[in-house]
């Protein structure tokens, strides 16, 4: 069985603040993949990043960064200098032969 | 860039009616999926399809649901007799032969179903 927990239901920030989204996962597999997806108000799912369980190197891509810690089963996501267009629901997901999503965190960025 | 397309984007139906949601996956993909998202809730796996048969289904995917690939390009989800609780956004996704291992799926923009 696998499980993805996003403890934060909603986060509201003022533009230019940083936002960190928490994700904790459970799996018995040694090989797995983790994802972050964004769902803007228009409803589509936008792929942001994928990480495999063997790659704990954290990364920065523009205003996005990820912190993968296998020891604590966490895969956190940070938006630096948030913008109004970042307002969306963000989903963490885990794959072990099928993709399972967390409950999502609604991010609202106010101008 | 190839993409997964879904039709209709929004369908309103009466309870008890049959609904067919259509998806055109990326042409060289081998794995096909349907996911469901009830409004305000998480995205849930319904079914995966490979080699013209269901490879896995969730407990949500009961006898009211069926999938098929009738013509080698479309991938359809049929709900035989819709219930109010079937109201949701339905996402189709497709993937390559590595997708079951990597989880790399390509999602369509979704079909919103409203059951009255």
Class computed from helices, strands and strand pairing of chain A: mainly beta
* Sheet with the most strands, sense and barrel status of chain B: 7 strands, mixed
Total helix count of chain B?
1
Question: What is the number of helical segments of chain A per DSSP (H or I, 4+ residues)?
Answer: 0
Count of beta strands of chain A: 12
What does the radius of gyration of chain A come to? 13 Å
The chain-level mean pLDDT of chain B equals 94
CA-CA gap between termini of chain A: 41 Å
Q: Catalogue the unreliable spans of chain A.
A: none
Proportion of residues in β-strands of chain B: over 45%
SSE series of chain A: EEEEEEEEEEEE
Which keywords apply here?
heterodimer; A: 111 residues; mainly beta; six-stranded mixed beta sheet; four-stranded antiparallel beta sheet; 0% helix; B: 116 residues; seven-stranded mixed beta sheet; 1 helix; 11 strands; 49% strand; globular
Could you give a short description of this structure?
Chain A has 111 residues and is mainly β.
